[in-house]
Amino acid sequence: MAKLFLEVDDALLARVLSESQEQEISLDKFISEALDAALASPNPVPAKKVVNVDSLIASAVDRVHTKQIGSEFMLVDLCTDEDWEALSGGERKSLGKGFRKAVEGMKPPVASYVRRTSANKAVYKRV
Questions:
Q1: Whole-model pTM above 0.70?
Q2: How close are the terminal C-alpha atoms of the chain, in Å?
Q3: What is the pLDDT of residues 83-108, one digit of tens each?
Q4: How wide is the angle at C-alpha 119 spanned by C-alphas 93 and 51, nearest 5°?
Q5: pLDDT band at residue 68, thresholds of 50, 70 and 90?
Q6: 3 state SS of 91
Q7: Considering its fold, how many domains does the chain have in total?
């Protein structure tokens, strides 16, 4: 039998450990059975798309140039829905910090930070 090493979110690991203990089976057996059940399901959950934050920053910076000068936009407006949904909260935060640093660090800058929305999303203005 092959060995598998993987990284999982702490909250997911806690749920999996709790479930395996409730069912009184080993963690390995629980995970194996969960994978079998998921793959045997008539509607298996599609794998989450892996997104590279650095490449998304570069792509978003390129898309700023398509915005009309003087227009306001948010970072989510520069990403595809698929890419945005694939990001975790921490990845979105890293993307936002990296994007702001990139656009404001350009000579001349292509966008400037304006404000935050009530949902705490940064609003930029194309310059």
A1: no
A2: 58
A3: 998 888 889 999 999 999 999 899 98
A4: 30
A5: very high
A6: helix
A7: 2
Q: How far is residue 56's CA from residue 87's CA, in Å, rounded to a whole number?
A: 10
Q: Residue 28 is encoded by which pair of tokens?
A: 């390995």
For residues 57 and 36, state if they share a domain: no
Neighbours of 107 (CB within 10 A): 5
Give CA–CA dist 72/39, Å, rounded: 44
The Cα–Cα gap between 111 and 109 comes to 6
Residues 82 and 29 grouped into a single domain: no
Structure tokens at 95: 């993307």
Asked if residue 38 lies in contact with residue 45, where contact means CB atoms within 8 angstroms, the answer is yes
The amino acid at residue 124 is: Y
